[in-house]
Amino acid sequence: MAFSVLRILLGLTLGLAAIASSAQGAVAQAPQAAPPQALAPQALSLGLIAGEISSSETVLASEMAELFSGGPPLRMLPMLGDSGERNLALLLTEPHIDAAFVSTDALAEAGAREFGGSLAAKVELVARLGPQEIHVVARQDIGSLADLAGKEVNFGPEGGSSAATAERLFKALDIKVEPLGLEARTAMERLKRGAIAALVVVGGKPAPLISDIPAGLGIHLLPVEFGAGVTDAYLPTSFDHDDYPNLIEAEVSVPTLATGMLLLAARGKDEPGYDPRVALFVETLFSHFGALLSPDRHPKWREINLAASLPGYARNATAIAWLAKRPGGAVTPVAAGPVRTHVEAGAGGPASAAMSQDQREALFKEFSQWQRAKGH
Whole-model pTM? Predict the structure, then answer.
């Protein structure tokens, strides 16, 4: 299923605000929410900051906003962000940002630096979203990740979700490249011209930016193998023709790795009405989650387990209360559970670099089943 930029733009509401980023990763100026008079009378507005216009999480945010399109008492205003550390900074400091998409790698990176204190005391988990696949898109003359050594590879703006994951991945694999901090669409245009060797995009498949690459352009997805150096941080998955018919032939599978994406709220945010507004948001999202599972929605909705927790981080109280009313884990179906990352504890033993595709798929399936059984 492909998602065009036009559909994303149409799905975003008055709260859409492009978060300018730089290679230095400075926190952008706070976006401006829609003025109260632009909303339905007596409606509360809740700002949700997502990813770049070309990201799957921005599609999720725009589709989520449709749950709140009926007017009072709450309207959700999605905004463009980086799904990384700038999203965290804005969530904690800006009055118009009430919830944020943040990748597990970016959260781990921020937590390692304590982000101005104990990060776990400042944010709480609303929901863990589906796995986010690592896409390494390269010129046809690049056959493997090792071939990228010494070449220019776009990681994305510093602090963003793709940059955090790309930095960790290439360091773990001991492949030294020349990282760039370009916005993904700009990097894609440079790749098409042959000006750079590759770019990394981390996001749920199918990622709109990659779905829109014309076939026959001399660009392909590099295999990212599960093996030594990455077994503690990521889990194996793959791309196939159904994911990207423009890049992958029928009956061909391209191995890759997956990380995670989180929906977070702030804890103890000093803003009038913040906690009740977030509580109403969570109650509405969870109660109407089934509407997001229809075939015309992004397939990542069908990989989410609302009961999944995040070790080391508190769960939002409204989410806890909603789940407590549904004993026995009566939540949404899960096609593939969220994956273990740097900030999570989990099961699944080490694997060798020589694992076959069948073994990789079996491990991923086994771990997903374990997570569903444990509620992780």
Answer: 0.73
